[in-house]
Each structure stands twice: as structure tokens, then as C-alpha cells.
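Our collaborator T.R. sent over the components below with a one-line note: 'Predict the complex.' Nothing else. No constraints on interfaces, no templates requested, no preferences about which chain binds where. So this is a plain run: every listed entity goes in together, and whatever single assembly comes back becomes the starting point for the next discussion.
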Amino acid sequence: MKCGHSTFVPGIYNSKSMKKLTLIVALFCTTHWLFANNGINKDSIRSFPMNEYVYKSGNTNNPSADHSKFAILQQPFASAHDATAACLSCHTERDKEIMATSHWHWRRSEKLEGKGVVSLGKANIINNFCIGITGSEATCTRCHIGYGWTDSSFDFTDPLNIDCLVCHDKTGTYKKKPGGAGYPAESVNLNFVSQHVGSPGRENCGVCHFLGGGGNNVKHGDLDIAMLDCSREVDVHMTTEGENMSCVDCHITEKHQIPGKVYALSSENKNRTTCEQCHTDKPHQSTILNEHGLRVACQTCHIPEYAKANGTKMIWDWSTAGRLDEHGNPMHENDADGNHNYLSIKGNFVYNDHVIPEYFWFNGIANHQLITDKITTIPVQMNTLYGSYNDKGAHQKSHAPAKIWPVKVHRGKQIYDTVNMTLIQPKLWDKESGKGAYWTDFDWNKAAELGMAACGMPYSGEYGFVETEMYWPLNHQVSPASESLKCIDCHSRPNSRLASLNDFYLPGRDFNPIVETAGVSLILVSIIGIAFHAFCRIVFGGKCKIDNP
Amino acid sequence: MKKVYLYKKFERFWHWGQSLLIFALLITGFDIHGTTHFFEYGQAVTIHNTSAWAFLVLIVFAIFWHVTTDEWKQYLPTVKNMKAQLDYYLVGIFAHAPHPVKKRTLSKLNPLQRITYFALKIVIIPTMVITGLMYMYFNYPIMEFEIESLETVAIIHTMGAYLLLTFLIIHLYLITTGHTLTSNLKAMITGWEVVDDEDVKDIVEEAVEVTGLKIRPISRTRQSHEELEELVLDALHETETKVKNKKLKGQKK
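Returned assembly:
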């Protein structure tokens, strides 16, 4: 008896074939359900354990209050401080949270190898961009989440000095005044802004983190204003064509503490934002790729290049600053892409885009060249990244193994004290000329004297320019998986991306010259020997020929 | 000239499986080493590791076979006829001299083969297996049991690869030194080896001897040995009669 759909003809079926049909239908339904269900199960197994991420970031999209309905925000504000007071009248405890953050203090306690615990941050660190804020606070603190930090007298304990709006503005109209010590520009309507507040978006973070260092993408190389609206190729997470994630989706914030830190300022391996927090430490289906993760940072393969949309500053030579035009005025020159390559106030720059990172072993611990430190190596390492192949973590000096990281290296040439052998913090900015700021008066000696005095540091009166290097481990602008590095990018003899990391054996790149020479010789000798032997067999009558049937 | 069934089914399967795997391992191995570029790097690694595991399984079966069949004794090195064999390859072969060492069921290999294959089995292959496993499992120095550096392991593994490749090249050439250019190859494919007529007698004798050796009196007395001799002679006689009357199993009438 046949079975299947073809046997079913209305009118002639009996109870037996009916039973069979029911069975077939049931079986089909079951298998279909099983397969469909299987699909769902499989997906859920393969998806990342993102519960926490969904839970926390999901909240931000559903504001529980419409701030435009609050009367207190409709009163005219005499000053920005009044707006803050209005915020704090409802959010009564948030000021304490803010004032416990490094966004507020621009410093935190960091343990530096050989230097113990120091209080370190933007407030007092030296870099090889604009060097440091001391003496020039009023312009630098345009990026501070406060109002009125003009010098060391700023009151970090006054809650009314907090600028809530710079981070929580959702109107896009809030702007801080240049040289205004963090106060908003006159054009800002504080009522309008305070009535339209919400969780910080990428615009809020970006205004400082994209534009730090005096222009777009100058410092990080992987934080660019283009990331407000970019393609998958530029940033697979933040792309407006897809995931459309904002900064705080990864930098999951609690009590205003925003995790994730940049090693331009930090030195300890803690409080970091990681790929693993969403992707786990075994994100690949291939075991070998997952094992790579033991010693290779995700970023190494998945950020094959940086500055993908706009150029980033690669070199900054302060020593050429001060050249004025024929009228004695400061001037600028641009490169072919429209980026400055010379500014009288800052010297020469080199910008580059689509830059291939340099690679370093990094165990999450960094050191810093402080203004009190003697210069011992040239180029001066502004923030040494520690780690080596042999730094396996756990029982070594770090608790995490060093991994290979992609790093933007910013090379500079900046002012230092040739007698005291320390870096110099010059006073760069002032509202008006004649007060010794370099950017107005172009006198290095005076600027150095004032800047060092503001730091409480001695200045010998002799200065020079020294080469420096600053290291920026890359984290953003993750490329789509299809663009990530291929095995051969590192595992190859010519052009290995890891050519500079020579403290370990890398298959495909490394070999022992003696073994290679001996091996190849052995093979050549056998081939030549065989050729000779075969030749003789043929010439001397060839046993083979005679015996061949 | 006769053909004698010399290489058993498993033996041939093992030989050709091994040759295929070693070939795959060599090609992908040198890809991974950066010498050649036959495959995409990741692919080469996958093929190399898969072949390695297949090889390990084959090795386990081969060891079992060698032990249970006593075939391992074929690989015990001997210096007997070593010089004669060398002389043959260096001189005799050009003057159509006969092979100095005859192939026997119990001694298929000449002294040079014995020493070479013995070294392969005892030194090279185990070295490759051990360094290969270390390469696979301890290459990231983070595990509890870790190697300080991959370098030593990798270099030894590479040395082994060069030796194996050298062996393979010479081995392939020596295939052509049989009775004819291809008789050795055919023998390893079909199991049937071409043998001179006078050798056939030796091989049959050897077979009877082997069978005789596998019969033993319950107690070791002189008398029973004599009984055994009688038994063997009787059997031979019976067989002779069978052959004459064309009643041997499978014999054409």
C-alpha cells in the first residue's frame, strides 16, 4: 500500500488511510515545529549574554518625566549656577555622585610603578599635545563638567559649580564658551536646554572626547565626529546604518561613574570597558581564534586601521612654533586634506588617515612621565605601556596576561628644561596678550617660567625641545568582521604586522636560519644525488630497461 | 618468476593512509611555516590539525596491528648484509647485479630499510607527535602546564619535517629499483610482489617452518619432537599428493 499525499483521494479513503494521513500530518507538524524551534534555540545559544546590557541601556530610552512640565525649569535663570540649583532641587543626591567622579576632579589616585600612589589626571598630567592645563585652565576647562575653573582656586566642593547640561542636553544647542572656564556661551537658552534633558548621547560625549586636543579626532584617532553618523565600515557598533549604539551602551554608567579609561591618563588595570562584557571571552566558533584571545586583544584583529573617516594627528613638533607672517601676525598652513600642518602658536603637525596601528604587548598597566620626573630616555615615553610575551599575568607582576594591542603612537617634540632635565609645562593661553602666555606673546622662556611656577616646579631658564612618544591603545572604530585582520597579516615572513614584536616565536613569521639552511641543503643534496643515480642507471645500460617486460 | 602475496590488506591501507596524511601534513606544514602558500593560512592550520588527529588514530591502529601480528619484528635493525645492500645501490645496480637481500614473508625489508623505518617509527614520528601536540595545546603560555616558548618546539617540529621530506623524496626514488620500474609500487598497491623462482621455494619452506613452529608438544621431550617431525613430513607428503592429484584448495584442475 502506498502512503503519502498521492494516496489521498476524497471519497475513497477508509479509516486506515485516514489514520496514516493524520500520522503524516502530525509528523510533518512535529518536525516542522522541531526545526523551527531548533532555529530559535540555536540563535539564543549563539547570541551574546547581553541581559545586563539590555537591561541598563534599555532604560535610557524611556524617560520617566517630561522636564518641560516642571515649573522650576520655566523660571528665568540668572546664571548657569541657577540651572544647576534647579536640577539639584529634585535630583538631590546626584551632586555627591558627580563630585566623586574623575570627570569632576580631572584626577584620581593611581598607583604608578616606582612612584607609589599619586593623584593623577588631566588636572596635572603632561602630554605631548597641548602639554597640560596648568596656567591655561580657563580655555582647557571648556571641557570640564563644571563652571568657573580658571585656576587652582576652583571650589571642587560646591555643587552649584556642576554643569549638568553639557552631558544631559538633548537639544544640541548647549555650547560652552571658548576661554570661558566651562561657562555656557551667551547664546544658550538655559530654560530650553534644561527642559529637554536626557541620558547622554554620543553628541554629548563627543563634544569633548571627539574634539579633545584642539580639533576633531586629534588625540585618539579612533574617536571622530564622523561617528555621530557613520557607516558600518567606520564603526560597526555606532553605525547609524545598523546597531546605532551610543557611548553609554558600552560604557555602562552607574551613579555617574563611567567605566572605561584611556591610558593617556590612567595606569591601573581596573574599571575598564571591554569587548568581553558583551561578546564573552569565547566569541568565535573556532577554538583556535578563541585561543588567540588569550594573548591577543580583540582590538588587534578587529581594528585593522584607525582614523577611518578623518585624519588624526600623528606628529606634533612644537620646536618650530613662533614663526609669524610678514606683518608679525600668527599664521597657519594646511596640508592637501585641509588639516593644519603649521600653526604659529603650536608648530608643525602631520595628520594621517586610514592609519595602520603599531602593536605592543600590554598588560593593562601603564606608567607616566610626570612633571617631577627626570628625563632618562629619548624619545621620552609619556605613558609607558607595560607588558611582554613573558608577562603571563597571575603570578607575574600583572594579574592579567599581556596581550598584543593595537596602539596609536603620537610622536612629539616639546619643550623641556635642559638643566633640570624635566619636561616643562609652559603657560600657553591667556585672555589678553602681554601676560606671558606663549600663544599670545611667543616667548618660550617667559611661558616656561610662568607655567612651571604655577606647577610649583623649578625652571632653570634653559630650555630645549625633546622627542616624545605617547601611546593610545585603540578601542573604537571596530570594523565589520569581514574587514578584520587575516591570519596572513601577522603570520607571514614579509610585511608581518607584528614585525616589531620579537620576543616570541610567531609561526609563519619566524624560523631558525640554521635549521632552514640545513633542511633545504639536505633536500637539494638528495635530489641531486637521485638525479645522478638515475642518470647513471640509464647511461650504464639501465637495469630497469633490461628487466622491463 | 612468480608473484607472492607479501603485503596484507591492513598493511597496505596503513601505508597509503600514512602516505596521504604525511603528504597533507608536509604541504600544510610548510604553509604554516611560511615557506609555501598552497592554502590560505587558516585553512592550512585546519587541514594540518585534522590530518594530525587522523594520523594519530592510524598510528594507534598500526601499533595494535604490529604487536598482534608480530610484524614489528620486521623493523628490528640488523647489520647483516648492510654493506652488501649499500654496495648494491652504489655499484651493483648499474651492473644488473641481483638484489643482495631477498624478500621473505618474515623479512620483507632490507637492512637499510630496517634501520630507516626503525628510526622513523622510534625517533621521527614520535618526535613529530609530541612536538605537534605541544604546539597544539601549550602554544599560549597561560595554561597551568605551559611551555616557556613555542620556539624550541617549533624548531624541532620543523627539523622533523625536513627529515620526513628528505625521506619521502628518497623513498619515492627507491620505489623504481625493484624488478621493474613499477613492480614495487604495484606490490604495495595489490599486495603481490614479483619474486624469482628459486625464492619461491624458500618462501614456501619458510611458511611450512612457521606453521611447524606454531605446533608444540605438551611436554618438551625428545620423543615428542620426533613425533612432530613425523607430523610435518606427513603433512608435506599429503600436500605433495594433493598437488599431484590437483586437489589443492583453489588449484585449477
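Summary for T.R.: Chain A is about 30% helix and 10% strand.
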